[in-house]
Amino acid sequence: MKSFTEKAIANYPYLLYHALEGNDQVVSNKAGECLEESLKSAGITNYTKEELEKAIGLITNLFITIAKDDPDLMVTFLYNAEKFGHAHEPDLCLAWMQSMDTNYTTDAQLGYSTGKYRIVRINCPIDVRVYDTEGNLLASIIDDTPQPDSRVVVSYNDQGEKLVYLPVYHDYVIKLTATDDGVMNYAVQEYDHYAGETNHLTLFHDIEITKGQEYTAYLPRYSEAEVESMTGTAADTDYTLFLGSTQIPLSEELTGEEVFNAYYDVNASTEDIRKGIVFGSGIRQYGTFAKVEAIAVEGYELAGWYEGENLVSTEAEYRFRVSRDIELVAVFQESTQGKHLKTTRVIKRIKVQAITRATTEQKPLPARLES
Fold it and tell me: Which fold has domain 263-340?
């Protein structure tokens, strides 16, 4: 693991460039080269050609998917990859033993990961509760904070999105309770290992919500044939959203090539680096939310974010739904209220960003998410 990680880090600029350029075969060849060299140096030879090709395919798909969605997170993953196995080996061993012990698990079923899962993205002032069809609470996000003791993965990412990760072999119900007036954007994206990325997007845009309203979302399981399919074809899943007995109309649904091509550049820049700096540029998938941030140096304050000649926001942190390539410029002006960050604090933040570039979003690999 250490040898492969070191080789991947050393070749990261090369791999990232070709991943973003769509040169999947080049990425696959280099990943295969790194893996074969690592196995050879470790003295591991008891594998077949088919097993090696499968491993290379898994690594390539993982790298390309994460690199396109969040290059910074890919760097964080590589630099921490060596620690994953050792850090969690005791936990994994204990979990495996408990799963085989009837004193802990009475209804366990033998099964393997399908490499498929759903990600629910919710953007609005709302609390989230996830239930199974019997009404058992599985997970919740309250006041933008994922609650402990969740049986499915939930998170709140650095773009301000609430996320719920769900397996494909169960039915789920999600209750959404508005904590304030506002606008809700709700989306379900399906990830398929065999497609190598998201292959189905269901989107509900710009729903006006009122504090206290409760919305109900239904997420049916895949059919047995869809779970076992290895074609990468999108499942025929009907995701619905209701306010009481009123069904909210679907805004958009994308599948296949429509989804594969639905990635856009968010480019944030500063009009004058001497007056302030910005963060938030990157490649984003259609329908997700992006957050750009402007920080003024001493003596200046943000006048606004501009797209061309149009002022789009005066907030230092500007969030928006991604629907196209966008160029945003932060314009700063001399401070009128004396409220600004000291230059030393700005420099400190730049150093931290340059070293870590880490996000708070948890992005689980294709794996069984429930015990």
Answer: Immunoglobulin-like (2.60.40)
Distance of alpha carbon 180 from alpha carbon 189, whole angstroms: 26
The Cα 229–Cα 194 span in angstroms is: 9
169 close to 190: Cβ distance less than 8 angstroms: no
Q: Which residues of 136-163 are buried (b: 16+ CB within 10 A; e: fewer)?
A: eebbbbeeeebeeebebbbbbbebebbb
Q: Give the domain ranges of the chain.
A: 2-96, 116-260, 263-340
The confidence score (pLDDT) of residue 3 equals: 66
Residue 202 · residue 234 · CB < 8 Å: no
Asked whether the beta carbons of 170 and 164 are under 8 A apart, the reply is no
Euclidean distance between CA atoms 134 and 139, whole angstroms: 14
Residue whose C-alpha is closest to residue 288's, from 312, 323, 315, 237: 323
How high is the pLDDT of residue 5?
67
Structure tokens that stand for 160 in this block = 């301000």
DSSP for residue 148: S
Q: Is 241 helix (H, G, I), strand (E, B) or coil?
A: strand
Global pTM value: 0.67
